[in-house]
Every structure is written in C-alpha cells, then in structure tokens.
Amino acid sequence: MAAKKAFLFLNGAPPKSLPDLSEYDLVCAVDGGYKHLQKQNILPDLITGDFDSIQDLPKTVEIVSTPDQNFTDFHKALEILQAKNFLQIDVYGGTGNEQDHYLGNLSTALEWRKKLKLTFYDDFGKSFFIHKSHSEKNVLNRTISLLPFPSASGISTKGLQYPLKNEKLTFGARIGTRNKAIENAVEVSYEQGALFIFISHPIT
After folding, report:
1. Which tens digit of pLDDT belongs to each residue from 128-180?
2. Which of 92, 139, 140, 143 could be joined to 200 by an S-S link, Cβ 3.0–4.6 Å?
3. What does the longest C-alpha to C-alpha distance in the chain come to?
C-alpha cells in the first residue's frame, strides 16, 4: 500500500505553476500560504497556523489553530500531517522571499528528515535531505548540488561530472555545489552526517 502523500503550501515565494493537486491525498496550507491558493481559486482540505496574517477563513474546510509561537507554522503543520499518518510531503512556497524564513524551513526539514520524506519545490527545481542513499532518474544535464549540514562523510556518487568516492563535505570548508549529471540516472550515498541535495528543473 502506497504511503499517503500531502501537498503543503507555505508562505514563501509562490511558484509560477503548481502540480496536479488531484495526485495528493490531502492539500494543506499554512495561513499565509492559503492567500496564494485563494488567488488561484484553490480550496485546500486543511488550513493551519497562528492566523497572524489572515482572518477571513473558509467554513467548509478543516481549520487547525496553532498559536504556539515557540514553533514555526511549518513545524506545526508537519506535526499535524504526521498525526494524520502522512509520511511523504511535497512543500511549495518554502523558499524565496525573506531568506530567514527559508533558513528556518531548512532547519525544520533537518529536524524532521528521519521522520518524514520532505521535498521542497520551487521555480528552479527540487531539494531534499537524502536518507543514506538516493537514486534519481531523468536528470541528464541537470545541475545537482550536494550540501552537508554541517558535514557528511563517506559520500560516493555515480553519474555526475565531478564524482565523489568515499569523500567528506563540510559547510564552511568544502561543499558540492553546481555539479552536473552526465548520465540519465544519478546515485548518491553517504555514511555519516546529513546531506541536502538540489536538483534543477530540466533544461528547456
């Protein structure tokens, strides 16, 4: 049985286009993100947040107020989705705009990386923490970057222009940005630490 999949819209920069939302089991927005969906006449299944940026809420969807200011709306939304047994969550509006928000979202994703499969999507591509090993197909000529948080060791890759073989990356020293896929399928693995991967959209 396939894991339930959720779409989550945060309050970052809205992308130029959205995926087919019928592919998701649940569409969720934090309060500020809901305003972006409103502009496209999209009604989510669930809206959550502290509602500091919106008051006019629809009465036909589930509303979950989370006023605790010790956690971000993103963190609180993940708690709600996990409680509803969603383990795979595609995140839109998680990047762009005020960069401190994006860094906060990365911190949250780092915290939840072992509990949930989180993938950020924006107009430039997708990004996510990998779990020890990851393979990606249909990536020929795309830009692929590897960022350690704060370090990752035993990294090996296959299919990249500049391959790694049992190597270490450390934030503030050596990182793996702007590599390129020279094969249609790429494989990345590591042994210790945390590793975040960016994959650009196909070149058109």
Report:
1. 999 999 999 999 999 999 999 999 999 999 999 999 999 999 999 999 999 99
2. 143
3. 55
